[in-house]
Design brief:
43% of the residues lie in helices and 16% in strands. By secondary structure, the protein is of the alpha+beta class. The strands form 3 sheets. Strands 3-2-1-5-8 form a 5-stranded mixed sheet, with no helix packed on it. Strands 4-10-9-6-7 form a 5-stranded mixed sheet, with helices on one face. The longest helix is centred in the first third of the chain and has 34 residues, at 81-114. The protein binds copper (II) ion (CU). Residues 175, 246, 312, 314, 316, 320, 323 line the site of copper (II) ion.
């Protein structure tokens, strides 16, 4: 029905145009054709001039009226250091193109009016004018050279070569249909390796190489988590994509860079205004003092709910809009507090699962360090007067299956233990071996005794006096969990340390 009506309207309009044409044809026949054409030319020339004035005044007035809604003006000044320079380049370009814009429009309509066909005038014909050609080639060339040179200088300032001495944070943004994965380096400050061949959508969607220590402590922010960055700190963003072209766009920071599958790009910027400071800046402007939700006039104002945002500036598919992410810029202290709360992706999701290539084979230096702190704390706890237990499980002591041979990984835990025991010369401990209930009870008892002795021998070889140590095997007699599940049996096979005297 709608199509029918639209078709009807178009048809009627065509009929009207034809009829008007017929009427003016008749009129010109009555009045003389030339007279009518001259009259038309003058009328159209005058209307053209009126249009030009309305159009130019309208352009300037609307640009002025809406200036506070445009990036770079009013409240929307840059929130990053380099953004001010970029804005000034845009302003210079706007001045040049603005002059050309106004001049060409005035000339266009003025010429159409002034040189309209009049009685007794004749158009001049010339095919070529060298001077004119030179002027209109040289002027734009000079202006363009100036703009491009300025742009190049700015580009080099925006992309400095960062050295290790520059204190900067490097994060990584991976775009895919339809979200961003944001990766932060862990405490080591370095983003680890990744490899597209390791991508496994269930466990490792970024393809992180978990055998790289730098990857093992990396933090990955999921699809909707707020991105947090510290103020006054240089941030380098590595930008990649997994499927199609995306674009990493932080409008308030004047950061915009394509995210290209297979071709990593990057951007360097330094936020200079925290989210709070930017909101305060917005609160000075009437446009931002209105309620954020027009249906709730008592609710928070627009400036109060403002958030910096990351958008994908590439039409990458039908869920494109959902790539929006909130970014919060906070003080450095707040950032440090936030980042220490974030958990390593590997340690939280992968470590010691079947997807872990390091399971039982390797401990990372940060794990060893962390375990050292833990062991010290556990020791301090069992030696304190308020201690509720005198047992410390030696979590990282492992043996080869069915044997009393200590695995290499155990040495880290035992070396830590040696240094703690050396610092507490009065302490005597029992090393207790336990097994699960698989196999013969007598053999388990024997194995647990051998394993406890193995630990004792290792400690003695590192300089602990034999008199301070007792090794005792308990076999399968003291389970701490059910022997019916593999996880339970895993827990029951253990070596413990018991304080005999403080
Ligand atoms: Cu996208």
């Amino acid at each position: 029905m709608t199509y029918l009506i639209a078709f009807g309207i178009v048809f009627l309009l065509a009929v009207i145009v034809i009829q008007i044409g017929k009427v003016s044809e008749l009129a010109s026949k009555i009045r003389g054709e030339e007279e009518v054409e001259l009259q038309n030319n003058t009328t159209q020339g005058i209307w053209g001039m009126i249009f030009m004035v309305v159009f130019l005044v309208g352009s300037v007035v609307s640009a002025y009226y809406y200036k506070n809604y445009m990036l770079g003006y009013g409240p929307l000044t840059s929130a990053s250091e380099h953004g001010f320079e970029l804005d000034s380049i845009f302003n210079v370009t706007l001045i040049f193109t603005g002059i050309v814009f106004v001049l060409t429009h005035i000339l266009l309509f003025w010429y159409a009016y002034k040189y309209r066909q009049q009685r007794g005038t004749k158009a001049i014909f010339f095919a070529h004018d060298t001077k004119l050609e030179m002027i209109w080639t040289a002027v734009p060339a000079v202006v363009m050279t100036f703009l491009v040179a300025r742009g190049l200088v700015a580009w080099n300032n925006i992309f400095p070569t960062l050295t290790n001495e520059d204190k900067y944070i490097e994060i990584e943004a991976t775009g895919y249909q339809f979200a961003w994965d944001i990766r932060y380096p862990g405490p080591d400050g370095k983003l680890g390796n990744k490899d597209f061949r390791l991508i496994d959508l269930a466990n490792n969607s970024l393809g992180l190489d978990f055998t790289d220590e730098h990857s093992a402590d990396d933090i990955v922010l999921g699809g909707t988590d707020k991105i947090v960055l510290p103020v006054d700190t240089t941030v380098k963003v590595r930008i990649t994509a997994k499927d199609v072209l995306h674009n990493f766009y932080l409008p308030h920071f004047r950061v915009k860079m394509d995210a290209v599958p297979g071709l990593p790009t990057s951007f360097i910027f330094k936020p200079v205004l925290t989210t709070k400071e930017f909101r305060e800046q917005l609160s000075q402007y009437p446009e931002w003092q209105v309620p954020a939700d027009p249906k709730d006039p008592e609710g928070p104002k627009r400036w109060e709910v403002f958030e910096y945002e990351l958008a994908c500036a590439e039409l990458c598919g039908k869920g494109h809009y959902s790539m929006r992410r909130v970014l919060e810029v906070v003080s450095r202290d707040e950032y440090n507090a936030w980042i220490t709360q974030q958990k390593s992706f590997y340690m939280t999701n992968i470590r010691n699962t079947d997807a872990d290539p390091n399971k039982g084979k390797r401990l990372f230096s940060f794990e060893i360090k962390q375990r050292e702190e833990e062991l010290k704390a556990e020791f301090a706890n069992v030696l304190s007067d308020s201690a509720k237990t005198n047992i410390i499980p030696l979590k990282n002591v492992f043996f080869e299956t069915g044997s009393d041979k200590l695995s290499d990984l155990s040495k880290h835990e035992l070396d830590n233990l040696v240094s703690i025991l050396k610092g507490r010369p009065s302490v005597r401990v029992e090393l207790a071996g336990h097994t699960d209930n698989v196999g013969d009870a007598a053999m388990n008892l024997d194995l647990s005794q051998k394993r406890a002795s193995g630990v004792l021998n290792y400690l003695v070889s590192k300089g602990i006096e034999t008199g301070k140590l007792v090794a005792k095997g308990y076999g399968q007699n003291n389970p701490v969990d059910s022997n019916d599940t593999p996880e339970g049996r895993d827990k029951n096979r253990r070596t413990e340390l018991k304080i005999i005297s403080k």
